[in-house]
Amino acid sequence: MFKDFYAQRGEYVVISAEQASRFAKGVAGDYNPIHNPDARRFCVPGDLLFTLVLVKFGLSRQMEFRFTNMVGADTPIKFSETANGDIHVCDESGKCYLQVVRSGEMTRDEAVVEGFARCYVAFSGKNFPHYLKPLMEQHGVMFNPKRPLVIYDSMGFCLERLDGFSPNLALTQSSLEVQGKRADALLEFSIESAGEAVGVGSKKLVVSGLCDYDDVEMAAIVDEFYRLKAAYEAA
Hints:
This is DUF3581 domain-containing protein. It comes from Vreelandella lutescens. InterPro entries: DUF3581. The protein is of the alpha+beta class. Helices cover 30% and strands 39% of the residues. The protein contains five helices and twelve strands. A hairpin with a 4-residue loop joins strand 5 (87-91) and strand 6. The relative contact order is 0.14.
């Protein structure tokens, strides 16, 4: 699963800028410029790290992911399990990029794991403009149009069961807490299967470099998003 988006080198995983960018656009529908191979502040999508955790350790009924640093291109990272079952993603120097706490029943069924990963990532990739633009407009703030920076802070979910479901995620509530030049966005979602509720979850994002909301600037950013999307899909 997802083997085209990383290389295994001994006990380390290496993700190229091209692989990361292809995952962001092709799997997550995420056109954040920070995932472009030539981006000055390029980083591997958090959703790819999330997906690789599920691929390597399975899907548990309760999982919490905390992103502590951004992974650069071609950085060797190791996915390891601690004695208490937590998962850490660290580089060769011990710098940690992702911490995962999990509990409850677990499955390694490839169809279930891949189905949930793709479903969540497709939901998560809609951060902008689908979820964040209305929140920022409502609060009269936006990121710096010249250096838009939205950072993946954390996410978690709780599932009622792991078998026999084809998950679908839907946004149930969103909020933005503005603190000076930064804001925390909380996106809460339901997890359903065939119209039946099977779980809930939430995702937290940090929006940096806030300035006053500008309709013209925001319209240009949204237009660029859809231009990039159309260009990628046409290619």
